[in-house]
Design goal:
Elements lengths: L1 E5 L11 E7 L39 E13 L6 E11 L3 H5 L22 H4 L14 E4 L7 E12 L4 E21 L11 E24 L2 E14 L13 E2 L6 E10 L7 H7 L2 E10 L3 E2 L4 E4 L6 E4 L2 E2 L6 E2 L3 E2 L6 E2 L9 E2 L4 E2 L14 E2 L3 E13 L5 E9 L28 H4 L14 E9 L1
Parallel strand pairs: 5-8
Antiparallel strand pairs: 1-2, 2-3, 3-4, 4-6, 6-7, 7-8, 8-9, 9-10, 9-11, 11-12, 12-23, 13-22, 14-15, 16-21, 17-20, 18-19, 23-24, 24-25
């Protein structure tokens, strides 16, 4: 991505709250070979073929101008009880390079050969792999991009009121809103015949959208007598019709996969006081501090799947939601028997002492989406407390060393994550949590994620 950021300033170097960013996002290329292959068109897949080598995945969009504006006004100026009003607006563009780079593992770049019942060792002819090919029928997956792809963008705005509560305390209330447009969507097509039958086909284009609204309240107490505190609470609602860019079954408007309605964060840091005339006591007992963080949030949405089929007209995988059975609780905490299926569940054996009630869901007719809808239930909430003990050592005027002993999830509170959400799993699995939160978030190693068992860490850090 290339960009130009124009940020005019006032005399004396103080920033001006007005900016303009220009985002240019050409399709990815390849310095040592051809770029990823695209289709010549995506309107009629029955006749679509690989575009000529060197055809860019999409036309460069030159219209990515993103203005930013911020305004602050001091309404009340009494010392220690100032009232400041802030507002801002910004337009932000996304890129799409992740989807664009998928083609480097698709047709024209990878190849394979499968043998069934072949004796071992393989012969020299069997070990040989044919070179990657772009001749139909394609035996590798095709990752196609809409050639008229536009830059996805988000508009964000906020209004905040900050109120002083004395020399060291402030209270801030903030409303934040945003809308996402032209967001990327990727559909996986499964043609039973034709050029893509052997390898498969994924197509990325624009079309998804999102809305986010939040009310945030923050209390902050600056350092006083060695104590500093910060607490914030957020009530929010995120709505979209696609929370992931990859291999969507369909677009359904509902709460986002990452929708957290309530989020509380609190942190306290305390520099332990003490002055010691004895040099040994001073070396051992001075300059210690405690840091505490408590986080608590409501549960993430969970999508209940009733069945998965291939749409005969579009050849896409589609998930269908079940119907909700009136009068049945979503979660159960005791033995439950379904009269229709004679199913018995045992929540006492489930992580967290509860599980989704299989009796509350009934598969809809084939090819029909049930009334439960997307992301219709919630999983488990997450509460965690972290604690750190630190000691600062002054080596020189500018060089310091800090010793830290940290305990994450110090109370060893169990925080559950992923849940078996497909009713076809049956009573032995459906509704049970099968991992803790730290293993469900993805990304970094689960050792560094929130929601794991209690863990301890000791570190030394040089500061200069």
């Amino acid at each position: 991505m290339s960009n130009c950021y124009c940020h005019p300033g006032r005399a004396g170097g103080s920033p001006h709250p007005l900016g303009l960013r220009w985002d240019i996002n050409p399709a990815p290329g390849n310095l040592i070979g051809p770029p990823p292959y695209n289709l010549n068109q995506i309107t009629d897949l029955a006749t679509a073929q690989i575009a000529p080598t060197g055809t860019p995945l999409w036309k460069t969009d030159w219209h990515g101008f993103a203005p930013r504006l911020g305004v602050a006004y001091q309404v009340h100026q009494a010392s220690g009880y100032e009232t400041v009003l802030r507002t801002g607006f910004g337009l932000f563009y996304d890129m799409g390079n992740t989807q664009g780079s998928e083609g480097f593992r698709g047709v024209g770049f990878s190849t394979y050969e499968a043998y069934f019942g072949a004796p071992f060792p393989l012969t020299s002819a069997q070990v040989y792999l044919p070179p990657p090919s772009i001749t139909p029928p394609y035996n590798e997956e095709v990752f196609a991009i809409d050639p008229n792809l536009k830059l996805p963008y988000t508009m964000q705005w906020n209004v905040a009121v900050e109120q002083g509560l004395g020399a060291r305390q402030t209270l801030t209330m903030n409303y934040l809103g945003s809308t996402g447009s032209e967001l990327l969507k990727q559909f996986e097509y499964i043609p039973p015949t034709g050029a893509f039958a052997a390898g498969g086909l994924d197509i990325t284009s624009n079309g998804a959208s999102s809305v986010y609204n939040a009310l945030q309240v923050k209390y902050q107490e600056n350092l006083s007598h060695g104590l500093q505190a910060l607490a914030s609470y957020t009530w929010a609602h995120a709505i979209d019709d696609a929370s992931s860019n990859f291999q969507l079954p369909e677009l359904l408007r509902a709460s986002s996969d990452f929708d957290i309605r309530q989020n509380l964060q609190a942190a306290v840091t305390y520099d332990i006081p003490g002055a010691y005339s004895n040099p040994m006591e001073s070396a051992l007992l001075s300059h210690w501090g405690l840091d505490t963080r408590i986080s608590a949030r409501s549960a993430l949405p969970l999508d209940i799947i009733g069945s998965t089929t291939v749409n005969p007209s579009t050849q896409q995988y589609e998930n269908f939601h079940p119907n909700l059975i009136p009068g049945q609780p979503i979660y159960v905490h005791s033995l439950q028997s379904c009269a229709a299926t004679a199913t018995i569940t045992n929540p006492a054996a489930a992580p967290g002492g509860r599980l989704l009630n299989l009796c509350a869901f009934l598969p809809a007719l084939a090819g029909v989406d049930g009334n439960s809808g997307r992301n219709s239930v919630r999983g488990f909430d997450a509460v965690q407390a972290d604690l750190a003990l630190r000691r600062n050592f002054r080596i020189s005027e500018r060089l310091h060393m800090q010793f830290r002993a940290e305990a994450f999830n110090v109370l060893n509170h169990a925080i559950f994550g992923s849940i078996y959400n497909n009713i076809t799993y049956g009573p032995s699995q459906f509704g049970y949590a099968y991992s803790t939160l730290n293993s469900s978030l993805g990304g970094l190693s689960s050792l560094y994620q929130t929601g794991g068992p209690r863990s301890l860490q000791i570190s030394l850090k040089l500061q200069f």
